[in-house]
Known about the structure:
Layout: E1 3-7, E2 10-12, E3 17-25, E4 35-41, E5 48-53, E6 59-61, E7 69-74, E8 79-85, E9 94-100, E10 115-116, E11 120-124
Parallel strand pairs: 2-11
Antiparallel strand pairs: 1-3, 3-8, 4-5, 4-9, 5-6, 7-8, 9-10, 9-11
Amino acid sequence: QLQLVESGGGLVQPGESLRLSCAASGYGFTLDDYAITWFRQAPGKERKEIACITNVGSTNYADPVKGRFTISRDSAKNTVSLQMDLQKPEETAVYYCAVVQPSWPRRNCPLEYDYWGQGAQVTGSS
């Protein structure tokens, strides 16, 4: 069983940058064996995949965030980060990280995940 803890959420204004972190822990856990994906869910909308890093280190981004969001991993700290340049109203949302251990090396994001964090709230201010 893995534990995922998101941090870095808070109150932001349009055009600001924010960095979220997802810390993974568990006995014998090796971050590089897993694919990790960030999702977000805005109020009244479906949860959407926004970025992932795979077990071979490949990164993928949803079209709306390409060029503005960057996902990275720190294997020594078992932490995955999401650097965000926030521009759109729907990006004020709850952000979740999720992980799964693929059965083979993957370049694309997995379709299903085994473990989810509790979410980090990114709230817009006016």
